[in-house]
Amino acid sequence: MGSLRKKSFTKPLPQSAELFTKKGEQFARWQDQNGQKRTAPVTVGRNGDQRIVFRSATYTAKYRDAAGSVKEVSTKCRDKQAAAAVLAELEREADRERAGIVTSKESASLVSSSRPLSDHLDSYTSARKAKGLAERHVRETRELIEKVCRECGFNTLASVQRHKVEEWLAVLAESGTGARRRNIYLEAIRAFLRWCVAGNRLLTDPLKDIARADQDADVRFERRALMDVELQNLLNAARLRPLAEFGRETVQLPPDKSKRSCWMYAPLTLGNISRAAERAKEKLADKALFIEEKLLLGWERSLIYKTLALTGLRRGELAAVEIRNVFLDESQPYIKLDRRSEKNREGNTIPLRVDLADDLRMWIHDKAMKVEETSRNAPSVNFEVEAAQIRRSDHTATAPAARLPGKEKLFAVPERRAMLRIIDRDYAVAGIEKVDDRGRKVDIHSLRHSFATWIGESGISPKAAQKLMRHSDVNLTMRYTHGRPEAETKALDALPAAELNSERQMHNAATGTGSLAPMLSPESVHGSLKSRSVSLSDNLHDSPGRSHGRHPATKKAENCGTSAAFGSDDEVHPARFELATSGFVNRRSIQLNYGCEALRL
Length: 601
Fold this sequence. Notes:
Layout: E1 3-5, E2 8-12, E3 18-22, E4 25-31, E5 37-44, E6 50-55, E7 60-64, E8 70-74, H1 80-98, H2 104-113, H3 117-130, H4 135-152, H5 162-174, H6 179-198, H7 228-244, E9 250-252, E10 263-265, H8 273-283, H9 288-311, H10 315-319, E11 326-327, E12 334-336, E13 349-351, H11 354-376, H12 383-390, H13 416-429, H14 446-457, H15 462-469, H16 474-480, H17 485-493, H18 503-511, H19 516-519, H20 522-526, E14 574-577, E15 590-592
């Protein structure tokens, strides 16, 4: 038989407490923080100190579970009758489990589902931190779950209902929230409920059958890749802008009565940024240390952009790279990522191009010299000269070894929001529109898209591109690869020349006549097919300004076998004509076989 009681606990005796005795028992009287007078019994603690005794406001139930163990569960009830009802329910569930009517998993889930949702969220957050996930990711995920539960009115796991979440998502859609954002909310609470099911806190996931929104049909933010010249302009703007900001010219605006001043600083562009940097040097001639600091900052920003564009690293991954992770003296320089800082937690190696490795080597050297000169309180080095040496055409020379601790960060990468503001200003100076005429945008992550596009245009296999991008699915790599008209034209030009060398085609090429249509007419089908050959349009090979290899008359036959071989004596004959396609009386298809022997109809 179970029992109910209000548990007692003790607290240290307040310093301002007044002790008195009543009916042989010692009490303490004091004034709390709210100015109210409080009275409580006094007892002696384990260490001999006097402590005040409090009783819990709610009842605790004590009973035996199905295994015979004594359990104490808080009923969270102040009323004894209500607490007795909770105790009876607990004993009933223990009897049902003992009789085999319900399983221990079901019994545990019933107890857990009635606990406050915040308790489960605390355990979920602790489990994700123990798993090694980033603190910011854990915090933001909890905020998403709390928002869903708060706006849907969920206080316990038992109160989570599917229709309420669906109605809330529908309200978000009507208010203009994008499909991707709605899916983020849904996946966050789904992951939490799956964790509850795996830990026997919940029997089933009530939200598992909610369909995800179609993100492809509701694209709100489409990125694009940078062109080669745009990347170079971005690097130049980032290198000079920190110093050029102090050398901008003032220009006069048309008179405006609503404003007291008609003067403003001229915006920086690629055309005036060099002159602005020179004016800044003249204005700040007496502040050599400040000039060097701005030059070093510009060099760091441009090198950050270059590293992101030529490695495909994410901003957070590059921010976590330390000098000990950079291996520049190997035959193939590379960066070794930490598992904790990489998104997929694999600890991949990122190969570096030779010019980028030289830039990083000189940057580490400059940074080490800066630290050494600062510690000695000596005149700083001229970083502008060092940066100019890096941008030489010959990258074979190497810089002296750095004297920096291995755990020093490679770059001081700004925080995410600050980085977005900085690169937006650099884009503006570089003349790169934030949103193009097709609605595509550029931001810091566009450098990763550019990397994927460039390696895709280089001709490597999709599998190799997937490995360089460190994706688990090649389809995701293809989403990062953006097609460009000039690349598509180049790919078409690289296709092999499909030349049909026949006497009729050579005659048409020489006379400038001939067409495919007459050869496919019904008369030609019933005519002497063996003496004729199918010719393509005469502008396939001899169009102005375009060449597809040797002239058909001079191309020699090679690989005369099962593969295609084109010689001056070979003819191409139709293998057979299929029946007219259903619904199209005059449409027929032809299958050609390019063997060396003439084929029969």
